[in-house]
Amino acid sequence: MNIRNFAIIAHIDHGKSTLADRIMEMTATITKREASDQLLDSMAVEQAHGVTVKSRTVRNIYHADDGQEYEFNLIDTPGHVDFNYEVEKSLSAAEGAILLVDATQGVQAQTVANYRLARQAGIVVLPVVNKVDSASADVDRTENQIRTMFPELKNSPILPISAKTGLGVHDVLEAIVHRLPAPTANDQLPLKASSLIPNTMPFRASLPMSECLKAFFPPRRT
To answer: Could you tell me if residue 196 is inside a domain?
Structure first.
């Protein structure tokens, strides 16, 4: 299946929503005219304070370097500890997660907490270092912190990016294709669904409730 369900997890203000913006732009999910900073943060409190409160999901179609088309179901999650449940719920509907770490700040409390949630969920973690274009970035120190604090990632390639400029984001898209697994179905398990908050876009009708499903539908009998 050419489908990838994944969340972006990080400490607050490490650039999750900015990376989501770049992914939507680079997959042509939104046009330049529609683009704005932290597009998925639609609540007034989120826009006023620059933080994500509710998890948001968006479907992107990516034309990969291998010539195939992939459906990326992205979930942008909160980074603040008060909204930890939103992260846990999102990870239950994904097979992978991008662990985003700010190169100017390094690994912080919610980096660790969200990584542990991803491990508990049994999903694949893709480590990414953000803000490498900043004058105060210390990429080597940040990568060493990731490898030291998360031994399971010791041998995993860590991708350096700037979500703000788009530097390295193409490599992230390709890593999603090749390093995150596709969803699988099990006909022995009951139907499960995780419902996320619906989005309302300006000048459009309210979008339907977004759902990430882990399900098996038996073939129709005739």
So the answer is: no
